[in-house]
């Protein structure tokens, strides 16, 4: 009997990655050298934003997508922060609104003028102060307009209602720095990973922890909800210091469903999930390759498809929303790869090979669009609603009619859950305590040296005085 290989039926098994030609890249960009574990890049259907290296504060570029090629060194920047910018995210419903957070403890909302920047922008439409330490993450709510989440090094997650420009809720269940935030499809659940090696599923409006996993064998770094499958995927490090992914049931985090080792490299693994195609992409910080898998509902759950390879290492990756893809080329995902050594942003398209040039409805199902399903008041009152879907055939690149209006307010104390956040003294992180300890040790050594020098000088003066008194002239 002849042996025949068993092929798994999948329309995505031949998906391939295609890097853009040099003239369609963005060149000459001074990408930030900050070592914070973020992407430093955000993209939507109109603009590309990249955090840049700058002196005396933090800044980022906002470039219209059609303006490819070499970017001039004096290109206008968004440069209102007093500290390094650590994260940027575009509003999913208003394409010219972007949120940024920084080491200066603030979160700022910027409105990009039509056609991009003509001069440096220093004034944000809204400045949000509530964290007492630097802010490392910002995330927009997936179905509600003007609800923004921010996570700081004070171990708190603040929920901002941008209609009033104030924090309305505080999630205070973490005991160390928060590494990642991820929402489920309707935004009713928030998954977080933390430096205390715990994975949590939180009800965001109450701050109640619904599930918690203490990951001793699998030290979690990043987490992503797998659409509406009620599963989570985390990336992290195994007990043997190999890179690893784990799949979890969101209603039972006692044990992962599966764990799979990827390789022995040290760079952080960033996961990206496409709920429309059920494809998972894994890209390592400092790697040049992007692996991709298909997620199934039955064991083994995870099926390896292929790997896009490139010699240039990536610092971070921006992801184009679905409504910004080129459906005529059967493009199902697009990355914007940050190559720091070359100062280059390289688009990488993931393409399903098809002979027909007509619209491929089986690879483009209805997808979340650019219209919010809820207002901030509705969501805060406890309403959950699935995102409003759009067809990429009918509503391709349809512009949203929503306009952002910044509230007018006076600066005052920020009180959430009965705590004034601006007055509340935060706990110290382990690194901060170590730095403080070493500074104190250096100061103690310096003071001891000064005292010993003074003691030596005093003894010299005493000896001189004794010699002077015993000299024959004074007798």
UniProtKB/TrEMBL annotation:
What organism is recorded for this protein?
Leucopsar rothschildi (Bali myna)
A Pfam family of the record is: DUF1899
Gene3D superfamilies attached to this UniProt entry: YVTN repeat-like/Quinoprotein amine dehydrogenase
Does the keyword field hold Repeat? yes
**What is this protein's record name?**
Coronin
UniProt domain DUF1899: residue ranges: 5-69
InterPro entries, alphabetized: Coronin (IPR015505), DUF1899 (IPR015048), WD40/YVTN_repeat-like_dom_sf (IPR015943), WD40_repeat_CS (IPR019775), WD40_repeat_dom_sf (IPR036322), WD40_rpt (IPR001680)
User: Which controlled-vocabulary keywords does the entry list?
Assistant: Actin-binding, Coiled coil, Repeat, WD repeat
Q: Where are the WD repeats?
A: 78-120, 128-170, 171-212
Instruction: Give a yes or no for keyword Repeat in this entry.
Output: yes
Which SMART domains does the annotation name? DUF1899, DUF1900, WD40
| Coiled coil spans | 444-471
Q: Recorded GO terms, molecular function?
A: actin filament binding
